[in-house]
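Worked problem 6 (solution included).
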Amino acid sequence: MNISGSPLVLRRFQIDETGTSGANVWIEARQSGIINFLLTIVGLDPNSSLKVTRGSISFRNSSVFGSSQVSTPLANIGAFVGGYKKPFLALVSAVLFFLTGFASLAAAGEDGGIMMFFFFAFLSLVCLIYYYLRKTMFMGFETSGGGTYGFAFQASVLEGVGVDIKRVESTIAYVNSLISSASLGEKFVEQSQTQVLGGRTATMLDSTPSQLPVQALAPQPVVQAAATPAPQPAPAPQPAPAPATNQPQPPSWPPN
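Solution. The predicted structure is:
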């Protein structure tokens, strides 16, 4: 996918697994420049946004002349891609400036060549720093009918939204999982974890696999154990009867 046009300034990069904010993925960017920044302050912001929900994906592009929006179901998405590119010309310029400095040093000698060498070496260093820091990221989708929608964006210092290529790659993987689930008719379940990103609240992705629903089982009859009789107290011991003794019988009266 080749998304043409000048890169936009990133305003929002939000991932909400729960969908309570209205979108699972919401990326918003505005046109660069001081005039567009002032229009953003007064509410006439020319911007572009990309939203992904459980069932559809939409792309909106607005300006001072109007707005346009396209929306398509996730099951009809052919591909959702993204990536980044760096200014290769800046790297080439850094090499050329460094070689020019060496050539100036060899041609002019040590008298005037040293100043020219340091000058071109400084320009080479500036180009290297520009190449390292300047990254243009892009994200978009292609429908099954061949339509391509998306935009290129850069991280913004004024807006306070910072994003790197790792977050872009994780977002692409997350949206592709939603597309696969929608195509197969499955339900995609995630666990949310909140994190503050660039002054805005976003949600981290959680790769923990969801547990399958447990089917309800019919209640089984509970077998109660037979009650055991309580132990009875032993009877108190009875005293043994006294032994009988031979006593003399009194004489019968009157005697014979």
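Discussion: The helical segments are 34-42, 88-133, 165-184.
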